[in-house]
From TrEMBL, chain A:
Record-annotated ABC transmembrane type-1 domain positions: 72-285
InterPro entries attached to this UniProt entry: ABC_transporter_permease (IPR051393), MetI-like (IPR000515), MetI-like_sf (IPR035906)
Gene Ontology process terms (BP): transmembrane transport
One GO location term (cellular component): plasma membrane
CDD domains noted in UniProt: TM_PBP2
Keywords (A to Z) from UniProt: Cell membrane, Membrane, Transmembrane, Transmembrane helix, Transport
Membrane topology type: Multi-pass membrane protein
Similarity remark: Belongs to the binding-protein-dependent transport system permease family.
Protein name, UniProt field: ABC transporter permease protein YurN
PROSITE patterns in UniProt: ABC_TM1
Automatic annotation (TrEMBL), chain B:
Organism: Virgibacillus oceani
InterPro entries associated with the record: SBP
GO biological process: maltodextrin transmembrane transport; maltose transport
Protein name: ABC transporter substrate-binding protein
Annotated PANTHER family: MALTOSE-BINDING PERIPLASMIC PROTEIN, MALTOSE_MALTODEXTRIN-BINDING PERIPLASMIC PROTEIN
GO cellular-component term (any): ATP-binding cassette (ABC) transporter complex, substrate-binding subunit-containing
Residues passing through the membrane, by range: none
Record family assignment: Belongs to the bacterial solute-binding protein 1 family.
Molecular-function GO terms, alphabetical: maltose binding
TrEMBL record, chain C:
Chief location of this protein within or outside the cell: membrane
Name under which the protein is recorded: Sn-glycerol-3-phosphate transport system permease protein UgpE
PROSITE patterns in the record: ABC_TM1 (PS50928)
Chain ranges passing through the membrane: 12-33, 69-93, 105-125, 137-158, 179-204, 237-258
Record lineage: Bacteria, Bacillati, Bacillota, Bacilli, Bacillales
UniProt membrane topology term: Multi-pass membrane protein
Family, per entry: Belongs to the binding-protein-dependent transport system permease family.
PANTHER family: ABC TRANSPORTER PERMEASE PROTEIN MG189-RELATED, ABC TRANSPORTER PERMEASE PROTEIN MG189-RELATED-RELATED
Domain ABC transmembrane type-1: start-end pairs: 69-258
GO cellular component: plasma membrane
Top-level taxon in the UniProt lineage: Bacteria
SUPFAM superfamilies linked to this entry: MetI-like
């Protein structure tokens, strides 16, 4: 990237002036609350009594709670189900839409995106009905196929996958759109050249499409993984974290403590630990992303 | 460099303050009163009152609040109704920011801790001590801590009773007036009542519901999963083994569905005939009588079956609601006076409430019970009679120990009936989890009830 | 021949994919036409056995519901406009200007991407309470405006804009803000559509924050109102489904209007 003129005073002033609203708002509504949260995480804090400084006691309790690790692990597992499924579906859909082209392609594209506008709360309600043991669509299909009814939300083996499906449904629209944009950006000549060299459809995908979409994949990965780990609405409304904490995502874990604990320190400490974990995961992916950015 | 950073931070904050100041009160809606106003235009003290029931009983509350406001000219009570979904966040955030209400509703389980932490204030200083003599023992115990009264009871309700369909009993050749009394009977009846499209019994299905709706069943074993002084787990014993076996049988025999049809508190499965029996709370009476009048006659009510069939033991935990004065309220006296008028004054107010809610909950006051005795509807209410005679006298108060203890129990039960883990092993694991919790949190001896 | 067959099979697959992805929404709309007792029926039924219009009519005639839709629309539009302006201005600075401490501020902004909202929920509430913003329309709009994600996206977009245009403007003596205003803003429509729709959705669907900060029913947001409906109406699912269906319509319409730009916005923004 070519730099414009050298640093000068007017630049500095303009820069700060133009950044001011953003920095001001972020400071007031995100950074100050964050520091406040860090501060209270070292206290026995309940708003009504003198706060008692207890050092790292809250953190020690969180870190010695097996359920905290289980919740983190569940968040990762959830991401590991949702993200690949979303990627594969979106990739196939994007290719399909491109192949179809024209009005019909546009129609398919719109239909795929529309679930994205639904809120998690509404999606949870819809899928609660779909997963109903006796009157739900899912078991209607299963039994029509001659199989036995499945306890989608109560069976330890299925619960996490069951709540992943609405998450995939809510998310594949945007993922498809982003991939489509990437696909449309690959010059046709690349493919034409490949065909002359005798490449088949598979080769084209492996050697042209996927490498050129690498940056898109990485971007979607950061957004997708941090989003999936922070999933809250779906398990909260559909399973309450059960059965056997199989769907206890980190945010739901934090929320449960928020509502049940007499003191707030544990809640805040576990939320801050989640922040650290998310930041580390993202930093790793980001680093990858930014370095690749330079190559292209 | 240093100077620059500081400068920017200062300027940012400064602009922000200007921005906020500019915003205040100039919008299309202006600034509404909310929790901040202390006085009305006419100089009355404003008492903010938060109610945790959404809007469902708002008209009733407002009716009586209006009467109170009209009855004197010192205080104006303003009620805000907050749906259950957001109650906890709303209250905790407001408490943290010091914008909480003067009076709010609080469930029994929270009173002791809130009192211990100064979140609520004792009422004794401001009200006539006689109002506490009007309370039944159980209610008095609920609201007391350290020799003082920190709340006044609004209502009380058993959280676990048996509801069943008399018509299905007849269909299956069972006597509709003879509900199952022992666990074995329940299993036997359940088998007879199950058929295609109908389950023998539905009950709590998810971890959360199991954790709290089983307090009554836990009491039948003779002790909670943790000892009274909170020093050790008391879950690994014969009582719990029997309870787990009972639950597992219900599941394995197909008396339960593999996935419960909705939340514990939902009554629909019984109404639309998907199940013949159901564990639920007395709060369901309200919905049953309001919305499903056509099936009410077909529904029977009984205490939960017990291991030996004797109902004269705890079969349910009592939960319920009270009004409390916030620890930071600037007008504790006015707030307490309002509570006294509303909950401890004219028994008619509460009679009116129980009438409106179809006698789905109970009073903690002797005088209200007296008034209900002469009430034609209440005195002829069969369901009410059964609960008053067979459930409430023996019910245990809802426990106040940490939620983790109830969760450890629920998880242990889930391991057994959902995953087929050996009962002994599962209980051993739960015992370890509870003991670990006690150790990491220095929990032993912290039960405020014993202090 | 083979070509034709595969084209048809693609069309069929395309149709199936579209049908599956909008099916749950259709089901929701249908449920709004059902009688309360029929939302869950045994066995499963898609269409109502008797079409009931009362749910929809009742809602459309309910002044509180309609006002809430109007107000939420107002909040979302104002907030979206502010989001676009404030974040793109900052994005421009990070993309083009050089100044001391730039890296520090970039990190300062980007770090906020990973803060779980749960961690700062109560502290944020304390801040808005101290600023006397509770129960005002500002508390709904202002705290969500600064967004690291949007700054990041718009910056990536700006990095890909060639510098020739600005060089010419520079020579003509334009200052930085003028360049941003007259050159960058007009070029930004595609990325603004992307950011704008996402922001609008966020505001339209927000639930916890309005519930915490708004108790004045004149200011109820639509999802908040629907949540109160849920606890209020007991389990009148047909009504709730009808309400959710009506609440989804504005965002679907918005998307249909802007969808062309949406793909373009992603395409040209730096994430490719």
């Amino acid at each position: 990237m070519k730099k414009l003129s050298a640093i000068n005073r007017s630049d500095k002033k303009t820069a700060f002036l133009m950044l001011l609203p953003l920095i001001g708002l972020l400071t007031a509504f995100v950074i100050i609350p964050l520091f406040y949260a860090v501060f209270v995480s070292f206290y026995k804090w309940n708003f009504y009594q003198e706060n008692i400084f207890i050092g790292f006691e809250n953190y020690r309790r969180v870190l010695s709670d097996p359920l905290f690790y289980k919740a983190m692990w569940t968040g990762l597992k959830f991401a590991a189900i949702v993200i690949p499924a979303q990627f594969i579906l979106a990739f196939l859909f994007a290719n399909l839409i491109r192949t179809l082209g024209g009005k019909f392609g546009g129609f398919v594209k719109t239909s795929i995106y529309i679930p994205h506008v639904i809120s998690g709360v509404v999606a949870s309600i819809i899928f609660l009905f779909i997963y109903d043991f006796d009157g739900g669509l899912a078991n209607f299909i299963i039994t029509s196929l001659g199989l036995e009814q499945v306890a989608w939300l109560a069976d330890v083996k299925f619960a996490l996958t069951s709540i992943s499906i609405p998450a995939i449904w809510l998310g594949f629209g945007l993922t498809t759109l982003v991939m489509l944009a990437g696909l449309n950006d690959i010059p046709k000549t690349y493919y034409e050249a490949a065909v002359i060299d005798g490449a088949n459809a598979w080769h084209k995908m492996i050697y042209i499409t996927i490498p050129l979409l690498k940056n898109i994949f990485l971007y979607l990965l950061v957004v997708g993984v941090t989003g999936a780990i922070q999933q809250f609405d779906l398990p909260y409304l559909m399973t309450g974290g059960g059965p056997l904490n199989e769907t206890m995502t980190p945010n739901l874990f934090i929320f449960t403590h928020f509502t049940k604990d007499p003191y707030m320190g544990y809640t805040v400490a576990s939320a801050l630990l989640l922040f650290v974990i998310l930041a580390v995961i993202s930093a790793v992916i980001f680093k990858l992303f930014n370095s690749k950015k330079m190559d292209s | 460099m240093r100077k620059n950073k500081l400068f920017v931070v200062l300027v940012s904050l400064f602009t922000l303050v200007i921005l906020m100041a500019g915003c205040k009160g100039t919008g299309p809606e202006g600034e509404s009163a909310g929790a901040e106003s202390e006085e009305t235009e006419s100089g009355k003290t404003v008492i903010d009152f938060w109610v945790s029931w959404g809007d469902s009983k708002a008209d009733w509350f407002n009716k009586w609040i209006d009467k109170y406001n009209a009855s004197q000219d010192e205080v104006e009570v303003k009620a805000t109704f907050i749906a259950g979904d957001a109650w906890e966040q709303r209250v905790k955030a407001a408490q943290a920011a010091g914008t909480g209400p003067d009076v709010m509703t609080m469930n029994y389980g929270s009173i002791v801790f809130s009192a211990q932490q100064g979140k609520i204030q004792p009422l004794d200083e401001y009200v006539d001590p006689a109002i506490f003599e009007d309370l039944h023992d159980f209610a008095n115990e609920f609201v007391s801590f350290d020799g003082k009264h920190y709340a006044y009871p609004f209502n009380a309700e058993p959280g676990s009773i048996l509801l069943y369909r008399k018509d299905f009993f007849e269909e299956a050749g069972l006597d509709p007036e003879q509900p199952p009394e022992t666990w074995d009977e329940l299993i036997e009846y359940g088998k007879k009542l199950s058929k295609d499209g109908r389950y023998g019994l539905t009950a709590a299905g998810n971890t959360n519901d199991l954790a709290w709706s089983h307090w009554g069943l836990q009491a039948m074993t003779g002790q909670l999963p943790i000892s009274d002084d909170w020093s050790k787990a008391t879950i690994n014993n014969e009582g719990y083994k029997k309870l787990f076996k009972f639950w597992k049988t219900l599941y394995d025999e197909g008396i339960f569905p593999k996935q419960q049809p909705g939340m514990y508190t939902e009554i629909q499965p019984l109404v639309d005939g998907r199940t013949a029996m159901m564990f639920n709370g007395s709060f369901t009476f309200d919905a049953l009588r309001n919305e499903y009048a056509d099936v009410v006659d077909k529904i029977g009510v009984a205490p939960l079956p017990t291991p030996d069939g004797n109902y004269k033991q705890p079969t349910s935990a009592m939960g319920g609601w009270t009004f409390v004065v916030d620890g930071n309220s600037k007008h504790p006296e006015e707030a307490a006076k309002f509570i006294e008028w509303f909950l401890a004054g004219d028994p008619e107010i509460m009679v009116d409430f129980f009438e409106l809610s179809n006698f789905s909950s109970f009073t903690g006051r002797k005088s209200v019970d007296e008034a209900l005795k002469d009430h034609p509807e209440a005195s002829n209410d069969e369901w009410r009679k059964i609960l008053l005679e067979k459930v409430i006298p023996y019910a245990v108060p809802e426990p106040i120990h940490a939620w983790e203890i109830s969760l450890a129990y629920a998880n242990a039960l889930e391991r057994v009936y959902l995953q087929g883990q050996d009962i002994d092993e599962s209980l051993k694991q739960a015992e370890k989890e509870i003991n670990d919790y006690i150790e990491t949190n220095d929990y032993a001896g912290t039960n405020p009830r014993l202090q | 021949m083979k070509e034709k067959v595969s084209r048809y099979s693609f069309k069929i697959i395309g149709f199936l994919v579209a049908a599956i992805s909008i099916f749950p929404l259709f089901w929701m709309a249908m449920a709004g036409f059902k009688k309360e007792s029929e939302v869950l029926s045994y066995p499963f039924k898609f269409f109502p056995s008797e079409w009931i219009l009362t749910n929809y009519i009742e809602l459309l005639q309910n002044p509180a519901f309609m006002r809430s839709i109007g107000l939420t629309l107002f909040v979302a539009v104002v907030a979206t406009t502010l989001i676009i302006f404030i974040n793109s201005m900052a994005a421009y600075v990070f993309a083009r200007l050089e100044f001391p401490t730039k890296n520090f501020w970039w990190l300062y902004v980007i770090m906020t991407l990973f803060i779980p909202s749960m961690a700062i929920l109560i502290p944020s509430y304390i801040v808005v309470a101290k600023l006397h913003m509770l129960n005002t329309i500002y508390v709904l709009i202002i705290p969500g405006i600064a967004s690291a994600m949007n700054v990041f996206l718009i910056r990536q977009f700006y990095l890909n804009i060639p510098t020739e245009l600005e060089d010419a403007a520079f020579i003509d003596g334009a200052n930085r803000f003028k360049i941003y205003w007259y050159i960058f803003l007009p070029l930004s429509v595609p990325v603004f559509v992307l950011v704008g729709i996402t922001a609008f959705l966020g505001y339209w669907n927000s639930l916890i924050w309005p519930i915490m900060t708004i108790s004045d029913e004149r200011l109820y947001q639509i999802m908040q109102l629907l949540a109160y409906f849920r606890s209020d109406q007991g389990n009148d699912w047909a009504m709730i489904m009808a309400g959710s269906t009506i609440a989804v319509i504005p965002v679907v319409v918005l998307f249909l209007i802007f969808q062309k730009h949406l793909v373009e916005g992603i395409k040209i923004s730096g994430i490719k």
